[in-house]
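Exercise 7.
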Amino acid sequence: MKILAITNQKGGVGKTTTCVNLAASMASLGKRVLLIDLDPQGNASTGSGIDKAHLKLSIYHVLIGEKSLTDVVVKSEKGGFDIAPSNRELAGAEVELVNELARENRLKTAIAKLGDAYDVVLLDCPPALNLVTVNALTAANAVMIPMQCEYYALEGLSDLVNTIKKVRAHLNPTLEIEGLLRTLFDNRNMLAQQVSAQLISHFGDKVYKTVIPRNIRLAEAPSYGVPVLNYDKSSKGAVAYMELAQEITDKENIRKEKTYG
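Solution. The predicted structure, written as tokens, is:
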């Protein structure tokens, strides 16, 4: 089971947009996908067609140990994937977990109990390096970092890379950065091109070949509670996320071939 944490402590970089649309694209490729919304804002839940205001159970109840993941998972009918939804209740988990034993492992333990029910688990992390994000990084076997190609993005990236190194050293030795995803990309912008070139120069093949363009359809789809694939599958945004899903799938197949010969 591939567990991919999608994280960046900087907000507004297309993190949740990536989670929802990658989940739908992976599902359209025939993968069994679970999206776990770990952001108290619950935007991934809303974008998947879930009414977060009337949730009886959410990922909050899993993290505090009251429920299992199978108790809280619901189907995103329009997205074709399962989701463990979130709402503002999750903000309280941070405080409640502070004095708990093995608090960093709550999510990892919960996912392990799913067995082989899913091919892919996507973790939509909050835009902060907090205990919930640490839970995600401890549970994941790979990290995707969505980022805009702008100056401040590079500053924030170094902080995140340092956090990943600390989690690897103390909690999850197998954690790897799978890739950096360039989002909200405008090819006409010279600075964006320069930062993109810097990323490739520094991170090499860790930068996904797929680039997510700035696209109005991607921005409009969440207001209808659907992934862009269901809103306008011929849009540049929908095409880009399908390409990303295929790129990730191809990488995973190559990794398995190398591992198992």
